[in-house]
């Protein structure tokens, strides 16, 4: 059986802006707040501002790599699925998961629908927030990364993409919140 892959929409301005490899660099420091941002939440149709969570609950900021609504990074797709399947575990511990993608709002709406996402999917097609967090880029899209923030918005753990360790596992991420979310 012959199958075809739909690459429509792949070669866009974002692709060329993020084509050359830029390594991830951690310039954020543990125990310090991270840069604030405001992005549209495609899942819920609202605007999400990171600072709105400060003083209220811990947050996992999960940058993910989606090329188009039909083209997922082979390293990120399983991670997106794992976060989706375990979203209730985070919610039960009063942790919000903010997944950030560089797909535009139309593409992101298709991703939300096709994957049945319940967690907020934030759209950053300009890649401004990806660049602010220095997650790196290669072959047309920013690289994935995860940042664990405590209730006060301070960075407690970070994981940047490498070919040896693509994304932090759900278990690793939940482990980072032990002691953080229990003090709410």
TrEMBL record:
Keywords from the UniProt entry: Antioxidant, Oxidoreductase, Peroxidase, Redox-active center
- Which InterPro entries does this chain map to? AhpC/TSA, Thioredoxin-like_sf, Thioredoxin_domain, Tpx_Peroxidase_subfamily
Oxidoreductase found in the keyword field = yes
Source superkingdom: Bacteria
Pfam families to which the protein is assigned, alphabetical: AhpC-TSA
Q: What is this protein called?
A: Peroxiredoxin
Q: Which residues form the Thioredoxin domain?
A: 28-183
Signal sequence residues: none
């Amino acid at each position: 059986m012959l199958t075809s892959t739909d690459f429509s929409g792949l070669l866009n301005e974002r692709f060329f802006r993020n084509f050359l490899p830029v390594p991830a660099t951690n310039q954020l420091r543990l125990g310090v707040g991270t840069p604030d941002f405001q992005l549209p939440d495609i899942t819920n149709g609202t605007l999400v501002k990171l600072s709105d969570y400060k003083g209220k609950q811990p947050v996992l900021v999960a940058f993910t790599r989606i090329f188009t609504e039909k083209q997922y990074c082979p390293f990120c797709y399983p991670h997106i699925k794992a976060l989706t399947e375990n979203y209730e575990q985070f919610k039960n511990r009063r942790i919000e998961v903010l997944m950030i993608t560089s797909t535009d709002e139309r593409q992101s709406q298709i991703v939300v629908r096709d994957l049945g996402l319940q967690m907020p999917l934030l759209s950053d097609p300009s890649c401004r927030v990806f660049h602010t967090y220095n997650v790196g880029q290669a072959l047309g899209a920013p690289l994935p990364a995860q940042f664990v923030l405590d209730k006060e918005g301070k960075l407690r753990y970070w994981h940047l993409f490498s070919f040896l360790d693509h994304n932090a596992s759900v278990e690793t991420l939940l482990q980072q919140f032990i002691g953080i979310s229990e003090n709410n």
